[in-house]
What does this fold into?
Amino acid sequence: MSNIKPNILIIISDQLSAQALPAYGNKFAVTHNISQIMEMGARFKTAYTNYPLCLPARASFWTSRYPHQTKIISNGGSLTEPVLDESVPTLGSIFTEAGYRAFNFGKKHDAGSLRGFECAVNVPDMEMEDNEPVFPISVDTRRDRNTRKLVVDFLKNYKEDKPYVAIASFNNPHDICNWTGVFQGDRELPPFDGKVPDLPDNLYIDNKEFKNRPLPVQYMCCAHNRQAQIAEWSEDKIRRYLAAYHRFIERVDEEIGLVLNALRSRKDAGNTLVVFFADHGDSMCGRWMATKHTTFYDETIHVPLVFYGPGIEGRNKSLNGLVSLLDLTPTLCDYAGIDISGYEFEGKSLLPWLKGEKENESPHEYLAGQWYSEYCFTIEPGRMIRTARYKYTHYLEENGEELYDMENDPGEVRNRAGREEFKSILEEHRKILRGYVENTNDPYFNTFWKADNMWRSHKPGYRNHRGLAVSAYYRKNK
Ligand code: ZN
It folds into this structure.
């Protein structure tokens, strides 16, 4: 690394599951540019977001604090967006204090956690001519085009002495949420003879297994509009959903390619760290689930995380060990030579792992994830503990629990929580949860919750859901 402070370019995709990418084993995806980032750098194989929803996830990783600490625990109570307390240091405030210029282009949805970044304005959408009738685009895709133009302009023109930290914050593949909306109910799909992905191995879960899940998981269709919409879909529509999801990934991949080209044209490209990750994933039709929500399954909570630049050891390197997006801000500070000892970060710097100094050790013993509510129409708090081999979840409603052996059951189709032979492992994970709650002052076990019985009425299985989901119901009856 040179003596001049490095620039940092952060590229974010919204709702991109790790397993949707070739670098994480996906055989269908075509992502030339994201793959190029993977090939040039070092990625973490097991990186988790700390909350599978935009606003809480973003406020958490821009501050390295858990959602209960940022107090941003939903996308807004009854649609009012919460705001981060001004006293909480953010990546932007820390870097500007250290002499950086900080810029955000594109999606914010930050509850104030982008404090310190300039240009942090919502990008207007632009008209695009290349709409496809089969995979119609909406504002998400159109805004991404504008975001990319702003980032490319910035990279072509930034000539100041100060180093920069810039965020290219893309929406896609988030447009899948609008695609699902467009195709809700029985609407006919236009003819399509293109390639479609295979159905996921974990598409179906038998009824006995399904009844063995915590109630918020069993009745997620009742809490979430888009999940309710896919109840009556056919397998063909599921395939089309996945094809559309991958198409939106290709669209963001194309924009990322143009950003990388612009970066390469800069003289200081060799002194720039590039980071790529996603705020959370998509259900990708595992267990007949679509878009994002309540659960801690890997599709929604396991995200890509890759770094490349001077000082990062290895090309196309896949690092083992547990990391979460809480580690992002401390890692970037450490990389830029900013002393992190005075900050109350919950994550830690991953730089020793990225430099190849600590490869045989996991950065963390366990990771914790949180859930509270999407828009506070229904409140179903839950916590997840991920250890090297297992995933444990707990929901306050009826003390619902799950335990998955992630090595033998990566699709999370067999809940082991009630099984005699997993008793000691279950107890061990309950203890880790209690320890985490104590260490982080998480008020989880005393959190208010509210799950209306009227949304616990149909036979188990998402395919048995009919009619509205709770949020649509409350909006309609207000
Ligand atoms: Zn339902």
